[in-house]
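@channel sequence for tomorrow's demo:
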Amino acid sequence: MSATLGTLIKQVQPDWTMQIFEARESVATESSNAWNNAGTGHAALCELNYMPEGKDGSLSAAKAIDINEQFQLSRQWWSALVQQGILGEPSSFINPTPHMTFVRGEANVDYLRRRYEILKREPLFSDMEFSDDPEQIAEWAPLLVDRRAKDEVFAATRSESGTDVDFGSVTRQLISHLVDHGATLHLGTEVTKLKRRADGTWDVVTRNRAGYGKSTVNAKFVFVGGGGGALQLLQSSKIPEIKGFGGFPISGKFLKTSNPEIVAQHRAKVYGKAAVGAPPMSVPHLDTRIVDGQESLLFGPYAGFSPNFLKKGSWWDLPGSIRLHNLGPMLKVGLTQWSLEKYLLGELMASREQQMQTLREYMPTARTSDWEMITAGQRVQVMKKDPEKGGILQFGTEVITGADGSIAGLLGASPGASTAVHAMLGVLRKCFPEQFASSWESAFTAQIPALATGGLNGDPEAAAASLAETSRVLGLIPSEEPAALEA
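structure tokens (generated this afternoon):
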């Protein structure tokens, strides 16, 4: 998010000075790191939680379409950056990887079929296929079917337009471009406090993690994109908009294999359906990951718990974030989210064999010796005030902006990085309304044509043209001639 916002600003205001503070010795070591997320270009092609079934059995494609539209903005912008030479060889950060949904049981198969019947009529989902034929599904993803019981009922959908994205690579390339064009990057420098001056500007107080020296930088605009650490920095700013917000950290864990014989049999991101009563974050998925040209498979997520807000944070993060204004909402969430608490307890108590058994529900041939457990990033779920319930737990992203537009920050998790362009354009529109309306929007629209029309799904021809062009530039489909790169 931070790298995206910085690049967008640099494109329209190259004369603005920019300073980037990173607490670690390199960028993209937390949530953007390739091993700390599933790398799914979230387009709602395979994620069922974007199209939940109503109590009356009804289905609506609205949320799925909205998420897909947001990802198309990212695809169009990345394509423009590749053509401008800001992003390098596309395969260094994005690769074609079919997105699949796999469900078991007659009720789930019926749901998936009805979901498919609705989505296949939408232009952005037109390549989706459905099958309940084991032979067909075995062609798509052999590991899902091999040694599965012959009488088991299951089905799958498949979208070839899906992708695997290395958001760590995107982040590093964008930050490198910013530094090459005048931005100052401070590594190993932790922001400890944000203080507003009487003139409305911000003092950014930092600490050098190696020498413990403190310094202060004054800024007219601040974006807090510190992952789980953003909550406490926004709290230190004392802006009214942060009141009532809290955070609950959950550690992500995945089983990983790099066994070439196994990896060669699976080229897809396969999402399932969360167990009854389990939260959306628990949706199991068996994913192809391509990091630095090396293919691996991940399966998860499995949940763990640590009070840290960052993978390399402090045990004091959670208790240190509690304030009088967010205590009520946090307690209310704690007293009502029994399903989440039961899920977490079960995950913490699960044995290695139980973890493998969950994998075998998707890959019956999985052998324990082939898989290792890795700890991914911390996901700090947003808790906030709610006028009716007192407090709610939110599973998406939340952008907080100050009333005067001088500060903004990002809380929450999924779909996160996949929709960074949409989210950061929203920040710019809200924090710099005059500049955005007078000149910035037209500059952005030149790179992201979908901004001019408000979306692609309403125009089948525009949707097909955009998918074809971005696929060509990003190397997602074979082409007779390589995409031309413009310096």
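heads up for whoever presents: The first strand starts at residue 19 and ends at 22.
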